[in-house]
Amino acid sequence: MTLTMQLSRRSFLQGGLGALTLAITSKGLITTVWAAEAAAQKYGADSMPGGTVEDPLVFVSIAADGTVTIVAHRAEMGTGVRTSLPMVVADEMEARWDRVKVIQAQADEVRYGNQNVDGSRSVRHFLMPMRRVGAAARQMLEAAAAAQWSVPVAEVKAVQHEVLHQPSGRRLAYGELAADAARQPVPTGDALKLKDRSEFRYIGKDQVRLVDLEAIGKGQASYGMDMRLPGMVYAVVARPPVVGGKLRRFDSTKALAVPGVLKVVEIPPMQGAPAFQPLGGVAVVARNTWAARQGRDALEIEWDDGPNGNYDSAAYRQALESAARKSGKAIRNQGDVAQVWTKAPETDRLAAEYYVPHLAHASMEPPVATVQIKGNNAEVWTSIQNPVAARDAVAARLKLDPANVKVNVLLLGGGFGRKSKPDFVDEAAIVARAMPEGTPVKLVWTREDDIHHDYLHTVSVERLAAVLDKSGQVQSWLHRSAAPTIASLFSVGAKGQQMFESAMSAINMPYRIPNVRVETAEVEAHARIGWFRSVANIPHAFAAQCFIAELAQHAGKDPRDFALDLIGPARRIDPGTLADTWNYSESPERYPYDTGRLRGVIEAACKGAEWGRTLPKGHGLGLAFCYSFMSYTATVVEVAVDEKGEVRIVAVDMAMDCGPQINPERIRAQMEGGAIMGLSLALTGEITFEKGRVKQSNFHDYEVLRHNASPRVIRTHLVNDDHALPPGGVGEPPVPPVAPALCNAIFAATGKRIRNLPVRRVA
Questions:
Q1: CATH number reported for the structural domain that contains residue 245 in this entry
Q2: pLDDT means over runs of 10, the chain (763 residues)
Q3: Do residues 285 and 426 share a domain?
Q4: Is 37 within a domain?
């Protein structure tokens, strides 16, 4: 994830960071590049560690029996990337899918290119490189066949696992050509011929099912929790209950007396900014996880809570509200918002505040890692989104050459951004180092550990204020955001949201408003703030989309018609003119803000929901839309609210324009998952603190959406399958519009505005 921060000269002279680009490296550190000294701006995959690799000899191998093995270099956590990218390779190389085998790459960005599965970048960054890998492999097979037959290569053609000599009808199977093909030069540049879209067999179709589907369905797939090795021992950790807290003293006598407990190992305390460090504490090692947990419960520990021991989320909310009501640091400013507000009559002014609490990732599979150390080598088995970060963390901890650390990437039972942070892998390495050489140590987090010690999504208060003229046109827009920043992970004392956070549905709004001001408040973080599925788009879109619906009601207009009028006609906008210098690290020329595409998803979602139809009493439709991770999404939610205020989700219509649709089935699946996750966050998601401690512990008090509360109908509408466009992200964009669409639907059903999450029920 590449971040751009803009801090003042004063903050730099006081020890902060100036205007620079921050790249979070595989080691969880930050490298800095002064913008003024940058020779050339890099975008997309080129801006990421490892970049891209397009060598077919790295990604493809063919056995003598014709089996084509394709390497998946990106981790699978439910997005289908272990299927989609190999499928692209297979399509371009004319391989039969039933003769393709997919294997998972180990951590090695020099060999495979970037492997950090964050930011909805897998297809966005690797569609074209994987197409080129497949096309090169196809042409090398064709060249090998032409050489064997001593014919011009123009006379041969690869067709479904064979190369055909068209004049004579002779055929050679891929297995027969494999050895010779591997010795052919790799075609590049103009010599590389990609398929025409009309020739695709798999891309854009629904014919390829997940490569792991059968194994998952039969319980045979290998996740981090499934790892077993001979002689394995198990560890759990007692961590400081407060971020920044330290171990004062502990007594392990009773823990060591628990049958099966083998050892107690102290984990060094966190130093400085959290980054991806372990929090510290005491690990209990045992012959099984039950004994380890019983041993941990028997530890006698005294903690020093440190500087965050008084963190209380209710009091902090008041502090955020106070900050949001004061002038903040302007990050977008056009016209004169203050003057328009002052001169406008009170009847033309509208202001509102919105609150989103801390949220936990709560992935199905909690963090888990297995580490084995033998001499100067270490091997890791884990479910990780950023395998190179895990490799480098272990190498640094054990003082090994990274080349001597092997990271095996297993399936992830969910990630959502949590599992790109390898603190749990580092913990496992610390414990493995304390055990006899060669002992495999499996370090397990319980659900309670996961909830208590997560890298939480930020808490936020968003204040918006606008002035409408007599015709209902918005004349001014103020959006002030008060939320702790992700930058606090990497810089002690970092305050206020940074450019990369503000450029997620706050500053980059393309509305036809002459006076716009967006501000951030400099507030401190008291917990580990991490990225989370769709990141700052969640609070920003919640506030902005609810506020647009409020403005529509204030103007006496239909919310859909008001929104389309606010967006205006189709046009392509340079993000820089919206003060967005980040643009998800993509080229503003390649990825402008296209309001026509935004209008398209709004119209598709509303059409699917039959917007404007007569609804039963107590029912309502709500609309919200968002541009995030280079894709356009819109959601319409239908709710039914009974006399007791209980909310039932009747239906959800979701529209997405992600450009070329590579694997439509996976796009629809992620949209449906985004609907469920977005509703879960909106209705029940909330992490609270008292005395620095997270109050929630498991799914009984940090609820996820239950089956009986889920919508009975989710309709997905894929818009604009245009292969002339660069691909957008898919995993994260479905989430942000869901909560505001829900709250707008509740208003339509009841006349009551919801400005604070979670909803739970309508009072």
A1: 3.30.365.10
A2: 37 31 41 43 95 98 98 97 98 98 98 97 98 98 98 98 97 98 97 97 94 95 97 98 97 98 98 97 98 98 98 98 97 98 97 98 98 98 98 98 98 97 98 98 98 98 98 98 98 95 97 98 97 98 98 98 98 97 97 98 98 97 98 98 95 98 97 98 98 98 95 97 96 98 98 96 78
A3: yes
A4: no
